[in-house]
Amino acid sequence: MSNQSKRFIDVIKQLNHFIMEERLTNGDKLPSERELSERLGVARSSVREALRALELLDLIETRRGEGTFFNATGSHRLVDIILMYMLKDDTAKKDLKETRRIIELDAIRLGLKNISSNLIKKLEEIYSTQINASFDKQFELDYEFHKTLVEASNNKLLINIWVSLVDFHKATIDTQKLVADPKKKLEDHRKILYLLKEQNKKEALLLIEQHLESNHF
Predict the structure, then answer these.
(1) Which terminus has fewer CB within 10 Å in the chain: N or C?
(2) Per-residue pLDDT at 96 exceeds 60
């Protein structure tokens, strides 16, 4: 795990600990980014990234012009579980990736019931942009392609868990060291799009499952 990833995880842990130590209740306001940065002894950019991750887990809520507030109904236990796995060995990281894959497949299985022309159009736009994109941009567009399929499930719990797992997993990997073949990913996306247009949901799901075996984000 890179030093940057370790710092990210450490800030997440500190923020989670701060919330518990202060015994914040639902709706309590958190200190500003600057105050948290000074209190935790880390850069504001690190605090900002960590707050974004906690917001994805529904642990906090950011209100424009008002600040950041604690959400007592959020996924506190999920934070602990994910952090525990991220800080363990490679086998645990594989477990994290496998869990993400299972959740994604279940969400997409639900989403295939809601295939629409608008969904196909959005996937086509992502795919078209991805063709000539840089490596870093392709990495993000690959994520957007999968996220669009997951969001088609209209199941907010599955979507939030998937986004959280992927976001934390992305923090532990160095995209510059990935060896996945961009051409293979593009070809998979093209085939998935074709199968969805043809309403061949069974084959599309099988291809997506194979595609996830080699996906790295």
Answers:
(1) N
(2) yes
